[in-house]
Amino acid sequence: MHAIAAYGMTLALATLITVPAVSPFGDRFCKATQMRWGLAGLTAAFLALAWCAAQPFVLVPVLTLVVARVLAKAFVDPAQSAILPELVATPLLPKAIQLQKTCRSVSGIFGPLVAGALLALASMPTALTTCALLPVVAGIASLAIPRRPGVRGFDARKWWRDMRAGARAKWGVPMERGWTVVNFVVWVFQGPAVGILIPIKVNALGLAGNWLGIGLSALVFGVFLGSVCGSSLLVRRFGRYRVRIGLGCLEGICLAYVGLSSSAVVMVAGLVLAGFCNASMALVGSTHRALAIPKSHRVRMLAASAVTTQIAGAAGPAIVGAALMHWSVSAVYAGFGILMAISVLGFCLIPRFKEFLELEHDDIVDWYPRQYPHVFQ
Predict the structure, then answer these.
(1) Sign of torsion, CA 105 109 114 116?
(2) Is the N or the C terminus of the chain less surrounded, counting Cβ atoms within 10 Å?
């Protein structure tokens, strides 16, 4: 338990420090190059973890490699999120983001299955070595991404100025500020409900361990369905604003239903519906947000969103632990679902949020600097 607690604390602190610290590089240097170097770092970290797994357990080297992995991902993830608007024409961007989400869902289905098979048939070092091959494959695929000229050299003063400018832009746009705050509160309750509470619920129902895999696969399968068809169909029928808020509330209700379930079948069905709502809701507005942020600030502002999500992801399980000391698993799980649904209603209070989502993609490019020029000066 001490090692797990140290791992969680190290992961949270490393993410909190490295993601914003690295983000200015993404707006000044070539994103494709950053992704390749980051993927190389991930490969090295996984190979080192595989070597550690073959040795007697020592905590410090593992925690050091956790920090190295977070640092490598800090170069990969924000650049990966911000590079699509630079590569894809505006009319095709929604499809590109949908395809990216679908691919992540497919990997989320097959990743645990492959890892479980490797652990069952081989060993931990073998599984980690195989994991190290995946960034190599991704790095080879990234060679197809065209390189963009960036700024040469590193200037500490410019780095500090860029980081402050990104934070100022993130907080200076009222809608972006409200969006970030609401997402933070929502994820405090949503994160545990689609994460740590699932194995706790499986255990509370007295189910065998394979039901945990079935439940997680059901959630990811729902995300896959929502990514493939849910978002586009629902937006055409109801509009972005209604879908974003309606499906967010519905996901919270589905998660509360999972919490109150007394059978495995009901739990799995609720997780499929929750995954569908999650993907369909998350895709709504993501294209708008990416296009509205100017290219000069895109990585930094998206990185700030990632940091707030990580903080909420750390706070949520802590609240779960405190709540479980006083209430049953069903009550806590259902409560988190209901509180998520209520938190989603905060989107109704965000200034100009409905107006923003109702705009067409051609009208949304650089919307933030056009509406709030003083923030980006």
Answers:
(1) positive
(2) N
Distance CA 339, CA 122 (A): 42
Give, for all 377 residues of the chain, the pLDDT tens digit. 567 667 767 877 787 788 777 766 766 677 788 888 899 999 999 999 999 988 888 888 988 998 899 888 888 877 777 777 778 877 777 777 777 777 776 776 677 677 777 877 888 888 889 889 999 999 998 888 887 765 555 555 666 666 676 677 778 889 989 999 999 999 999 988 998 899 889 989 988 877 887 888 888 888 888 887 777 788 888 888 999 999 999 999 999 999 999 999 999 999 999 999 988 787 777 778 888 888 777 777 777 777 788 778 778 888 888 888 889 999 999 999 999 999 999 999 999 999 999 888 778 888 988 998 888 77
8 A C-beta contact, residue 367 and residue 292: yes
Angle between helices 59-87 and 298-324 (to 10 degrees): 130
Stated pTM of the model: 0.77
CB 46 within 8 A of CB 135: yes
Q: Are 251 and 274 in contact (CB under 8 A)?
A: yes
Q: Chain centroid to CA 122: how far?
A: 30
